[in-house]
Amino acid sequence: MILIENVSLSYRDVPILRGIDLALPKGGITALVGPNGAGKSSLLSLVARLQPLQTGCISVDGMPVDTTPSRTLAQRLAILRQDGIVASRLTVRELIGFGRFPHHQGRPGALDLALVDAALDQFDLAALSDRFIDTLSGGQRQRALVAMTFCQGTDYLLLDEPLNNLDMFHARQLMRSLRRIADEAARTAIIVLHDINQAAAYADRIVAMRDGRVIVDGPPAAVLTEENMEAVFGYRIRIEQIAGKPFLMHHL
Amino acid sequence: MIDRKPRWTNWTIGLAVGLGSALLFCLSLAVGADDLVFARLFDDPATVQLFLASRLPRTLAAMLTGAGLAIAGLIMQTLARNRFVEPATAGTAQSAALGILIATLLFPAATLATKTLIASVAALTGTSVFLMTAHRLPPTQPYLVPLFGLVYGGVIGAIVTFVGWQADLLQFLDIWTSGEFSGVVRGRYELLWGAAAMIVLAWWVADRLTVVSLGREISVGLGLSYQRTLQLGLVIVSVIAALTVVIVGIIPFVGLVVPNVVSRIMGDNLRGTIPWVAGCGAFLVLGCDLLGRLLRYPYEIPVATVMGVVGGLLFLRLMFMRSAHG
């Protein structure tokens, strides 16, 4: 379980997060939604100890993120940031292989190599495995970074806008992969999504944020109402039921 | 731009560099103001003396320096996440020269090892300041980092010149700052084996350095101690730079050109590329030293001058290849 207690954050007196309390039990997909600047990415990077906590505390399976050895956490929790700029000329296979680094510290075993092969297949990257990542398209590179994060094999996956640059086919495939590891392997995904209909279709729980606060939190059917969405996004969105899921006509 | 990692590179390049180096190695042993005939090594003590006291040390020094500088450049580029920096242009070598100057002024009787130690500390300080500043520059402007490095190195170089002038040490300064191997004899180069030790250390921690090249956030996400690895890389760069400045002087371009060529062909996975960067660096510096010995035979052109021309041309070629392929 990821436990977030009374977490606030500010940069130069500009508040980013204001007293966040969240308990995210193990298993399932939680989607973080909200307008730009709501604090979603900042919250993820605090959980993943990418920046220091200012107030409050965060723990993963009882381990406080600010005092637990980084390597121990890296075996439990993986993060994909949204601005995944990789300037190094690594091949796709080498990059994904570094996802196993927390487990082998540079000396990969047979299991590590097998997991890399599996990730290459799972994300349609086998044909690109020897390509240098600086020569790939944005979507292909994004898939390689997602595959690297998956390959880390952690119980908790934090993904910040993983659907960036992905075409419809690969976006759907990624959401289905997340669903599968949540259902079959009881792994936990916490994922920042801008496509709210993906959240409606695949998430078990939606946490909607605005101005550094959690506005609503619950299963998709309860969160995705016209009143809630207006409170979060600031305009009226028509919501239909399609194929048994709420469908937001947010573009109209 | 090569977009796919070629499968043939490992053994083909290895064979070419290996054969080329072996050839240069033998040539370098043979070429000098005095003739050295290999056949006489077995019966002529003077030939043996020439071989052991001058030719072999000089050849080994050139190869160690080349390998070391290329690795120092590679690691500096990895740490700065910028392909256009190297110790000779970004303040490391100049800081090392400042260290030697200080050592000479304060402890005139200091041994070579002590001077190297002080130069290493100075290089470490100078490079840390460079790196801290480089990490603050906007990543959207990759040319700011080498530009800042040039200015920074220039300022430290100017301080060195000023202090040297005031202390009437300009002639010594010239010896430290323009790299050449003609003064290398037995007993005056052995410290350079320290550079070999640093290369082994770099290879030992190669995976950690590659992770660092992916940036702070990915490094932390993978549970790597980012700061500690940065510091370790800085120590490797500084020790190599200090050793080479103390013993041979500043040689430009090696640390810039060699890692760029290797990265272009084989990528940036340091576990695989460190041996080739070291090998190609050794090959390049030995080749340039040999060229300097042959061009005006029996006189010599300093290796730094030859490297300035050869390295500069190679670098220009790299730049034009880059722009032609986007």
TrEMBL record, chain A:
The keyword Transferase does not apply. Keywords: ATP-binding, Cell membrane, Ion transport, Iron, Iron transport, Membrane, Nucleotide-binding, Transport. Gene3D superfamilies: P-loop containing nucleotide triphosphate hydrolases (3.40.50.300). GO terms for cellular component: plasma membrane. One of its GO terms (biological process) is iron ion transport. It is a peripheral membrane protein. It is found in: Cell membrane. GO terms for molecular function: ATP binding; ATP hydrolysis activity. Residues 2-236 form the ABC transporter domain. The keyword Glycoprotein does not apply. Its main location: membrane. Belongs to the ABC transporter superfamily. This is Iron ABC transporter ATP-binding protein. It comes from Pararhizobium antarcticum. The lineage of its organism: Bacteria, Pseudomonadati, Pseudomonadota, Alphaproteobacteria, Hyphomicrobiales.
UniProtKB/TrEMBL annotation, chain B:
GO terms for molecular function: transmembrane transporter activity. GO terms for cellular component: plasma membrane. GO terms for biological process: siderophore-iron import into cell. InterPro entries: ABC_BtuC-like (IPR037294), ABC_transptr_permease_BtuC (IPR000522). Keywords: Cell membrane, Membrane, Transmembrane, Transmembrane helix, Transport. It is a multi-pass membrane protein. It is found in: Cell membrane. The chain crosses the membrane at residues 56-76, 88-110, 116-134, 143-165, 191-211, 232-254, 274-292, 299-320. Gene3D superfamilies: ABC transporter involved in vitamin B12 uptake, BtuC (1.10.3470.10). Its main location: membrane. The keyword DNA-binding does not apply. It comes from the Bacteria. Belongs to the binding-protein-dependent transport system permease family. FecCD subfamily. This is Iron ABC transporter permease. It comes from Pararhizobium antarcticum.
